[in-house]
Design a protein that fits this description.
It comes from Kitasatospora paranensis. By secondary structure, this protein is an all-alpha fold. It has one domain: Tetracycline Repressor, domain 2 (Orthogonal Bundle). Helices cover 76% and strands 0% of the residues. α6 runs antiparallel to α10.
């Protein structure tokens, strides 16, 4: 990701964030959607305020009025990209006529593998978190926080909160590992086999609580 001078913080440039008026907030959301579209299509490589400004049809100075610099804009765009994916996940689950936890996870998996939903970008975001946790740590922490409520909702409603939390963490970690494996090796057969094992484990877990 670029760290050029055009990525300077508002404190250095003299610009300020939007005060949060309805009009200003609508403008900020529109800019964020456009930058998110660019991020989904082109990834994180060479991301900068100037590139984001071109994608949004504005100037980097306008972006600095609404966002606290390049890192803040990147974080918000990644969060927005995840929100879109989570919306697709929830739609896939809602389309099931009925379903066990295992069936819901099976329905979720193809959505998560959809390359057009920004999968590689989100994988790159996790990579940045590992490369420079001091600067990009929120990209990783935000991921777990965003996905956890949806995963908790997949669990049977009569389970205890503790049990839901344990299973949701397992699903999150395993599916994230599958996605990284698929992206880095292209080994679809191995990932498919792992998913079968995960579904079988979830079936046993749900049966134990019946």
């Amino acid at each position: 990701m670029s760290t050029s001078a055009d990525d300077a913080s508002p404190e250095r440039t003299g610009y300020r964030r939007s005060a949060g008026s309805p009009r200003g907030e609508a403008r900020r959301r529109d800019l964020l959607e456009r930058v998110t579209d660019d991020l989904a299509a082109n990834g994180l490589v060479d991301f900068s305020l100037r590139r984001a400004a071109r994608a949004a049809g504005t100037t980097h100075k306008v972006l600095l009025y609404h966002f606290d610099g390049a890192d803040d804009l990147l974080r918000q765009a990644v969060v927005r990209l995840r929100e879109r994916r989570i919306g697709h996940v929830e739609a896939a689950v809602a389309a099931l006529p009925d379903g066990t936890l295992a069936a819901r996870v099976r329905a979720v998996w193809p959505v998560l593998m959809d390359a057009e939903s920004g999968l590689r970008v989100l994988d790159q975001a996790i990579g940045l978190t590992m490369y420079d946790p001091g600067r990009y740590g929120p990209l990783g922490r935000d991921a777990s926080q965003q996905y956890r409520p949806t995963l908790l909702a997949l669990c049977p409603p009569d389970w205890t909160d503790e049990r839901k939390g344990q299973v949701a963490e397992m699903i999150l970690a395993v599916l994230r590992g599958f996605l990284v494996e698929w992206l880095t090796t292209g080994d679809t057969s191995g990932v498919d086999a792992g998913l079968v094992a995960l579904v079988r484990a979830l079936e046993r877990e749900e049966a134990a609580g019946a």
